[in-house]
Specification:
The protein contains 10 helices and 2 strands. Helices cover 74% and strands 1% of the residues.
Length: 333
């Protein structure tokens, strides 16, 4: 017979154990699609699209984080898995890396040999940062005590794997419904090979034995500004992929790659010198705010009042979420 009080205690712990999983499941599609206005209020009447985004992003990022944790991957390992995640969506699912026109019929700048090279680089970078890194980082900061633990049981792994597969299949269906473009077998094989190579490379990027020692919060304002500036530059490159630029797309692609490398080098330096949790959260806030304001620009150009109002609410949500997260981290610290 169980001692009195044991069962209620176990019941109280279950929601706590599930909280980071549910938070990441919700935050990944929110940050990856809603904050930047890729999914707008007017799109919520499209249940197929909403279901695809929730399943692919929510389950996919939770699975990615679980794999990284179980394999003890470093930050670079997560980046490589994020690139594989982006290729599955944009290469196999929505097929925008190969489709000569965008999902809504717009032309894509920087196409050669059947591949939208510049768009592929920019959209992959977007997914790595906004769809993968920021949601995982924020949830780890908020649930710091659970950040280094595995979250999913075997049945849960199977469930999230099924949801991710469903999301991918729905993206393929959406792509076929919106466009007459179809992938060639060689393109499918190329994407699968690239994904496999990225996953293998990620598995080689294991973290060091000791966890990083957090530093003192000396530069949250600077972290916010750097996150905002880096995010704004990348999102402007996002626009160049559709409106084009004066230079060849080769130079634009090279510039985007060098810029991403420079930002990664800066973050790596801060990491080695000791990066406080407040600074990490501030960096995420800056990048998220850049995406939210970029989304406001996009919906303003589309001239739909309901989308503009919703996007303003999202901006307020980003600011309020940062304030709440900073307070929670300060209390926990």
């Amino acid at each position: 017979m169980k001692p009195p009080g044991q069962h209620p205690t176990r019941q109280r712990h279950r929601p706590h154990r599930a909280a980071p999983v549910l938070a990441l499941f919700a935050l990944a599609p929110l940050m990856g699609e809603v904050v930047g206005a890729a999914l707008r209020l007017s799109n919520f009447v499209e249940p197929l699209r909403v279901a695809a985004i929730v399943c692919f992003y929510g389950a996919g990022v939770v699975l990615l984080r679980e794999i990284a944790q179980r394999l003890r991957l470093s930050g670079w390992g997560i980046v490589l898995l994020g690139l594989a995640f982006a290729l599955v969506e944009e290469g196999l699912g929505l097929q925008t890396i190969f489709n000569p026109v965008g999902m809504d019929g717009e032309s894509v700048h920087g196409r050669a040999l059947g591949v939208n090279w510049f768009w592929g680089v920019v959209v992959s970078g977007y997914h790595v940062v906004w769809s993968v890194l920021i949601p995982i980082a924020v949830v780890h900061l908020v649930f710091a005590r659970r950040s280094r633990a595995a979250w999913l049981s075997r049945p849960a792994l199977l469930l999230f794997g099924i949801l991710f597969a469903v999301g991918t299949a729905l993206f393929v269906l959406i792509s076929h419904l919106r466009s007459d473009f179809r992938l060639l077998p060689v393109q499918v094989v190329a994407v699968l090979a690239a994904v496999a190579l990225l996953v293998w490379a990620a598995s080689r990027c294991t973290a060091r034995g000791r966890p990083p020692v957090p530093g003192r919060p000396t530069r949250p304002v600077l972290s916010t500004l750097v996150g905002f500036a880096a995010g704004a530059v990348w999102l402007l490159l996002y626009l160049v992929a559709f409106i084009g630029g004066g230079a060849s797309f080769v130079w634009w692609t090279l510039a985007a790659t060098l810029f991403a490398t420079a930002v990664a080098a800066l973050l790596g330096r801060w990491e080695r010198r000791g990066w406080a949790t407040q600074d990490r959260l501030a960096m995420c806030f800056g990048a998220a705010l850049a995406a939210a304001l970029f989304g406001l620009l996009l919906v303003s150009l589309a001239d739909r009042a309901e989308d503009v109002v919703f996007q303003v609410i999202m901006i307020g949500g980003v600011v309020a979420g940062y304030a709440w997260g900073r307070r929670r981290i300060s209390v926990a610290g």
